[in-house]
Specification:
The complex is a heterodimer of chains A (108) and B (913). Chain A is of the alpha+beta class. Chain A has two helices and six strands; from the N terminus they run αβββββαβ. With 913 residues, chain B is mainly alpha-helical. In chain B, the strands form three sheets. In chain B, strands 1-2 form a two-stranded antiparallel ribbon. A two-stranded antiparallel ribbon of chain B has the order 3-4. Chain B has a two-stranded antiparallel sheet with strand order 5-6. In chain B, helix 19 runs parallel beside helix 21. Classes of the chains: A alpha+beta (108), B mainly alpha (913).
Amino acid sequence: MHPSVYRAKVEKQKGRHNSVTVEVFLQGGAPWGFTLKGGLEHGEPLIISKVEEGGKADLLTSKLQVGDEVININNVELSGYRQEAITLVKGSYKTLKLLIRRYEIWSR
Amino acid sequence: MMSQMKSTTVSHVQSHTMTQVEETMHYNHNYESEMEEYMMQEEDWDRDLLLDPAWEKQQRKTFTAWCNSHLRKAGTQIENIEDDFRNGLKLMLLLEVISGERLPKPDQGKMRFHKIANVNKALDYISSKGVKLVSIGAEEIVDGNVKMTLGMIWTIILRFAIHDISVEETSAKEGLLLWCQRKTAPYKNVNVQNFHTSWKDGLALCALIHRHRPDLIDYSKLRKDDALYNLNLALDIAEKELDIPKMLDPEDIVNTPKPDQRALMTYVSCFYHAFAGAEQAEMAANRICKILAVNQENEKSMAEYERLASELLQWIKRTIPWLENRSSEKTMQAMQQKLEDFRDYRRLHKPPKIQEKCQLEINFNTLQTKLRISNRPAFMPSEGKMVSDIAGAWQRLEQAEKGYEEWLQTEIRRLERLDHLAEKFRQKATTYEMWSHGKDYTLMQKDYESASLTEVRALLRKHEAFESDLAAHQDRVEQIAAIAQELNELDYHNAAEINARCQKICDQWDNFGTLTQKRREALERAEKLQETIDQLFLEFAKRAAPFKNWMEGAMEDLQDMFIVHSIEEIQSLIAAHEQFKATLPEADSEKQAILGILNEVQKITQSYNISSTVSNPYSMISRDEINAKWDKVKQLVPQRDAALQEELVRQHGNERLRRQFASQANVIGPWIQRKMEEIAQSSIEMTGTLEDQMNQLKQLEEVIINYKPNVDKLEGDHQLIQEALIFDNKHTNYTMEHIRVGWEMLLTTIARSMNEIETQILTRDAKGITQQQMNEFRSSFSHFDRKKNGAMEPDDLRACLISMGFDLGEAEFARIMNLVDPNNTGLVSFQSFISFMTRETAETDTADQVVASFRILAGDKPYILAEELRRELPSDQAEYCIASMPPYRGPNAVPGALDYVSFSTALYGESDL
């Protein structure tokens, strides 16, 4: 799918919920302590599905959270493919800058 | 001494006033004063003892002649004036002659005192005639005193001959003078101013004679300077023709410058008496003529008056009846003509009469005045023509007039009113007649006989309206009658016609009243009947409709197609039918009653002669309809009986089928149930290995399969039941469907269970889960599967995980849910649960590991080739990879290079970083 379409689909999936954009700065190198899920390969948004307890992502003052959508890695705007994101992350040496979109979570 | 006396030349002397000419010697003309004057003269003379001898002579002659002219009548004479009166006898005689009165008897005797007494008698007489005898005493006369005697004689002459002379209210001397002047006025050569010088030429005397007796003297021949001749002539003629003795001596007169006025006065007075007498006679004759003339005139006036009065009275007499005629005319024009005539009368005819009356009055008054001043008795008009009569008649005329005018006005007004009233009457009568025309005909209509209730009611309303209209017209009829009444009272000339019309109207009115009343009664009666009928119809409608409905319902019910599925049903139908049959008698009587109503209506219409085509406005249901339906009902009843019985038989048959089925089903159903339980049981039980479980299940399976024929048989029975259209079966709770479904379920369950066991075996083998673990998982799952349907709900899962020590936040739980229930079914199967659990506790393959594995296969290349896949993997898996892997587009790409990295990551939903 064309990235812009994907983004539109994402927004549709997510609905009209308020979101904030958060910049997350990780340091120290891999492993970063989070798991990415989804991606354009699956027709899904790129989501943080797991944050390892005690991992670098977890020890930030402004933590990464499960459900955060990654939209930008190291000032590179993502196309949406997980492979791309993985590549970008693996390409980071000592520092990793993520731009994530966080939606309001509603209780079940 | 000549005295100048100026006399007045006034022609109408009314008084004694005369102008006096003041001269040295003049004399008053007043008689009294003259007497005094004479006396004064005498006294003067007495004092002087002078007597003009000429005068004495003249006087003596004249006086003597005068006395003798009178004494002659007594048959005696005197010779000597101073002697012959000494004894007083002739004096007394003279007085008697000239006065015409008797003196007292003279004293007969010769003695002095007798003479004095006689003279005194005479003197007394003279003084009794109003003469003041001043200083004349009887002794002087007896003694023969000439002066005294002459004076006395002059006194007598003055008193008896001159004093009474009255000429135009001038008396005595002045009168005499005036008379002379008057008479001599035509004679131009005579100018009498006094009694002395004016007479000297004698013309005055002649003129006097000529004036009265022109035959005696030819005056034209006389000459002024021939005084003596004139005098003589006059004296002669006077003596011969006039019986006046000569008292004067013409020579004395001519020769004396101023003749004695007394003598002249005496002589002239005789002329006066002579002529005046004649004159008096003439005057008397004149007076008589005048009087007669006046009389004649008066009489003429009287006659004229009488005539005019008579005419006027006659006119009045004619006119009054005309004015008093109060016969009225019929028409206003005639009356107005009368008024016009009256106006003419007032304008043209009466005024001249007023004039006449006025004239009459004037004439009368003039006449009366004339009569009065001429000392005649007042005019007494003849009977009925007196002023009062005329006035009275005129008054009556005027009254009649007034009355007439008033009457005319009244009459005209009356006629006007009558005309107006008559017109009003005609108008109102016409209006009324127009209104009433044809109404009696309408009132007598019998239109209510064939009318319906509403029509009758409408007629009643209409009639009510008519009644109020009638009432409204009551006023008008009364008005008409009132006008007719008034016309009668006012004596309208054509009252008969009016009355006839009025009568007709009133009769018609009364008739209306009667007719109206009758119609009202008839209408009300008709209404009543119609109402009764209407009531009956209504009742009929009220009863017939439900009855009809009942009948129709009954018919419907009786023909009702019933479908019953049980004996009870048919039996209840039969019972209902019986019940229905029981109601028939009651229905029948109801029918009779309803039809009875119609009979009632018919009776009424027949007996009251109302149109029998009257239809029921409330209902269309006819007698025939009711009867027809009833018959139908009766007909249907046995039909139904038959049908019901038939059905009953059928139902019994069905019941048998049911029982058959039921007995079968009641066996099979529980059997299936048991078997299900057995299966479930084996799933739940943890004893033995999975293989054992599998065997168990296999055995069960066989049993089940062997049982099939029973089910088939049941199907057969079921077929029959279906064909018999039996839909329920209270003998069993199991329907064929139940059984079928149960059977299917059984088969499915057994298969699934077996499958599950297989899967578990696989999983166990794959994951290396021990049987114990598996049992643990199994028991947890079973425990939290609250609903025991082989799957967990999210809450169950949550509880389960918590019990296993998982501390879950919402996000984490959500992730887990996503894993175990990716399809969002809301249920977690045991398989997923196992998968999840095993994954959590076991090493998981990550995408990286797969990638690593592929790299090995690819010989450390970033891409892999199809032949490599085919070489290393089983063929179908290899083909799958070849088909699914995207082409490798990285550096050093060769044709046919496949990207195993993206494929791998795609295999896994996530990547750990």
